[in-house]
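Let us practice reading a record.
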Amino acid sequence: MARTVRGAKVLITGAASGMGRSYAERAVAEGAAAVTLWDRDASALARTAEALGQAARGRTLVRSEVVDLGEMGAIAKHAQKVRNDLGAPDILINNAGIVRGNRYFWETDNGDDTRATMRVNALAPMYVAREFLPGMIADAYRAKRIVNIASAAGTLGNPRMAAYAASKAALIGWSDSLRVELAQAGHTNVKVTTVTPSYIATGMFAGATGPLLAPILEPDVVVDRVWRAMLRGEPLVELPRTVRLSRALRALLPTRVFDVVVGGGFGVYRSMQGFTGRAR
């Protein structure tokens, strides 16, 4: 793929605010042909679409659709609309995600917490990708990209975010498997990038504290790193680099030693105690 997304069709979920909006702004700034924004927050989505439309000055078609990714039927309906109007996207960024409270798992509600978290964070990216993959694969002479925004929480357990960690672990497993499947099947035009950042200063994790050696990440730094990795077709982005260190220590150390050294000493297991952030 080129060094920019100029001329590409881009679809971003969770695009009304936070990181999703930042990815959309980057796409417009680089001259994407069309940017489709999906989010369930109608008012925030309208504001973002208006601002992006003004920034595009007619060079980029900006489309917005109110989509509740917790409803699998809604995904199919809106994906069909995108295919009819634009065809399959060149770049799909599965960015939408939710996190609920900072309670222990047995204090949560299976419907409002566990089911909703698994649907939006784990199932929705699979359903969205499945809707567009046949078209992306068929356009074999054009580079395609799928970016799945997971989390460092999916690489190791963390108290007070059990369902969230489970959803991101599922996303990581599926995302990397999809990458290997595409390569094995010879569909080399479609590259998958899995992203596993620690906490990002978007408001989603307000009140959470960055563990030792893993400070709260600045959004613009994350966007730039993910964007460049996506264009190059890199398989994995770990931010900060100490996420890789924690994975290595988890594999090397006995579990109870890891709990003391990393979970306790690095402060990972205490990072959600003060969480007060929004639920999306």
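A brief commentary: The chain has eight helices and seven strands.
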